[in-house]
Recover the amino acids of this structure.
């Protein structure tokens, strides 16, 4: 199959629409269920590249949850603690495969952004992973293959309209990539830069201690950024992205956005949140929304009289800003990656508030000394990778 006609492009008025191979060869994908759209394929192909690189870099199964051509979460298949199982709503599912753990982490890091995601998996989709996907609101999935039972589970979603794509994992794209904007063709070499330990060798801070787990997390951050709309910053802890700030014009806004998401991830593990008593039959999305509001500044939107009764069996106490700060101060050993240099030390000041200890950024700012000095003030270890990872 050389081309696939799509229903429409980015918007319903953008017709005709298709994906095709200019070289006359076959598309490297098979659509096993549903009818993926233009944006679905953008998410699928970017997500597939991301998880393939994560698998190659770490040796672990990888998953990502994409929305609007940027990842909402990305992770490798490390085991889940009891607390993570609970905040990812998989504590009733028993032992999970490494691939299922990877997707639970990718989906669970930022559940608000992952709602209606497109999933990419590095490995053949197994039954455990399909069982998690079955009960989440999702638009589709791409993977190199599917176990027969897993495929049947996925094909049953959305009354048989769930998008399931199989990609040829041996496919290698042309080294030159092209796209058109305003009728003008852009051409560039593909970003085939390999992200490995060698990029972590130029440590520029007084603290030079970066353990192997931190190097892994920094690699996950950089690989995630490689497929995230720029400007972008990514916080990673224990093998998963916990906060991604994408597509911001100001780098410190990226750092703040990603940091707030990382804070929310950790706040969801606080006893005040774990002990929330939800009314019976509440939908998963409503529960996620309620938690997001409860841990935020607009908490009265869910705690006001006449409103809390619709969500909680018992009215929760206010989770005060002082209590949240005390809890957040316990978050440590977070890795931070940036797709371009930090122009000011204020990015590091903000990162410190979210437990960052390890930083990877290209370097090259006229204020590098200020950024290094700020890292030294907090005892952080920072590497200059010497590479930029813009993605548009």
């Amino acid at each position: 199959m050389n081309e696939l006609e799509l229903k429409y492009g980015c918007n319903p008025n953008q017709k005709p629409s298709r994906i095709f191979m200019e070289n006359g060869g076959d598309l490297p994908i098979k659509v096993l269920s549903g009818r993926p759209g233009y944006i679905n394929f953008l998410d699928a192909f970017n997500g597939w590249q991301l998880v393939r690189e994560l698998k190659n870099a770490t040796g672990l199964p990888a998953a990502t949850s994409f929305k609007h051509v940027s990842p909402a979460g990305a992770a490798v298949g490390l085991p889940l603690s009891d607390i993570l199982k609970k905040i990812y709503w998989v504590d009733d599912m028993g032992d999970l495969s490494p691939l299922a753990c990877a997707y639970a982490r990718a989906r669970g890091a930022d559940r608000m952004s992952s709602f209606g995601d497109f999933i990419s998996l590095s490995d053949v989709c197994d039954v455990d992973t399909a069982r998690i996907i079955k009960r989440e609101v999702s638009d589709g999935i791409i993977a190199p293959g599917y176990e027969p039972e897993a495929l049947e589970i996925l094909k049953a979603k959305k009354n048989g309209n769930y998008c399931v794509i199989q990609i040829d994992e041996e496919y290698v794209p042309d080294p030159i990539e092209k796209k058109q904007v305003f009728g003008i063709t852009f051409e560039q070499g593909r970003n085939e830069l390999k992200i490995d330990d060698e990029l972590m060798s130029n440590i520029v801070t007084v603290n030079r201690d970066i353990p192997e787990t931190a190097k892994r997390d920094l690699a996950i951050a950089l690989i995630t950024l490689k497929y995230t709309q720029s400007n972008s910053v990514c916080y990673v802890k224990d093998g998963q992205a916990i906060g991604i700030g994408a597509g911001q014009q100001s780098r410190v806004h990226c750092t703040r956005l990603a940091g707030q998401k990382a804070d929310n991830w950790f706040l969801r593990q606080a006893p005040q949140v774990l002990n929330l008593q939800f009314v019976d039959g509440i939908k998963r999305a409503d529960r996620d929304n309620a938690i997001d509001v409860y841990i935020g500044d607009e908490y009265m939107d869910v705690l006001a009289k006449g409103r809390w009764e619709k969500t909680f069996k018992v009215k929760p106490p206010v989770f005060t800003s002082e209590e949240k700060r005390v809890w957040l101060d316990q978050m440590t050993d977070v890795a931070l990656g940036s797709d371009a240099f930090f122009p000011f030390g204020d990015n590091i000041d903000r990162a410190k508030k979210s437990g960052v200890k390890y930083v990877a950024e290209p370097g090259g700012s006229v204020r590098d000394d200020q950024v290094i000095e700020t890292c030294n003030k907090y005892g952080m270890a920072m590497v200059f990778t010497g590479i930029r990872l813009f993605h548009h």
In short: The longest helix spans residues 38-58. The CA atoms of residues 208 and 217 lie 16 Å apart.
